[in-house]
Amino acid sequence: MRLELDIVNIKDVQFADKTTISGGVLHINRRELEELLQEDKRLSQVGIELAHPGDKCRILQVSDVVEPRAKTRESGEDFPSALGEPGTVGEGSTCVLRGSAVVTSDHSERGELSRDPNGDIIDMSGPAAEIGIYGKTHNVVVLPYPANGVSLEGYRIALKIAGLKTAVYLAKAGKALKPDEIEVYDLPPLTEIAKGLEGLSKVAYIFQVLSTQYQPMLGDPVLYGSNIGGIVPTILHPNEVLDGAILRDYRAMGIETYVIQNHPIIKELYRRHGKELCFVGVIITLGYNNEPDYERAATVAANLAKRVLGADGVVLTKSGGGVPEVAMALAAQKCEELGVKTALAMCHFAADVSDASFEGTMIFNLPEVNAIVSMGSPLEVITLPPMERIIGRPVASPEGLPVSGEIKRPLVWIKGTVGQLGNLRLTSARY
Question: How far apart are CA 208 and CA 185, in angstroms?
Answer without folding.
Answer: 22
